[in-house]
Amino acid sequence: MSFLLSILRLPKVTRNIISVQYATQFKSSLDFKDFIIDKKKIKGTRQKIEIPVEEDVNKLLNYVCGLNIYKDGEDIKLKPDSEYPEWLWNIRIEKLQLSDLNPNTKQYWRFVRKQALKRKNEMQKFKKF
């Protein structure tokens, strides 16, 4: 049986492992010097984007500056407070505190776990290896 494998140039099977009976050598026409890249070529030139800051006080009080996404459009004019929904003025803008939550809710325990993970990650920064 082994003489058939050598004639057919099939790999020998030994204990469910196929042994490869040939090896090839990689020949490259390129020199190693071709792979060295000049640092100046890698470092591209980045252009700093200048975003204009609105300094006109009247425009800041009457328009939503920077919300216009069109080239030819104008900024949106602010409406009186009475035209906006009531829930808009009740939105929480300060960070959520543990004392604000009820300990019998999932939100409380998720908050506790999240704070513990943040603290653990901060402590990992100072851990000596």
Automatic annotation (TrEMBL):
Provide the alphabetized UniProt keywords: Mitochondrion, Ribonucleoprotein, Ribosomal protein, Transit peptide
Q: Which Pfam families would you find in this protein's record?
A: Ribosomal_L37 (PF08561)
Location relative to the cell:
Mitochondrion
Signal peptide positions on this chain? none
What the entry lists under InterPro entries is as follows:
Ribosomal_mL54
Its cellular-component GO annotations read: mitochondrial large ribosomal subunit
Record carries keyword Ribonucleoprotein:
yes
Which GO molecular-function terms appear in the entry? structural constituent of ribosome
Tell me which family the UniProt entry assigns to this protein. Belongs to the mitochondrion-specific ribosomal protein mL54 family.
- Return the protein name: Large ribosomal subunit protein mL54
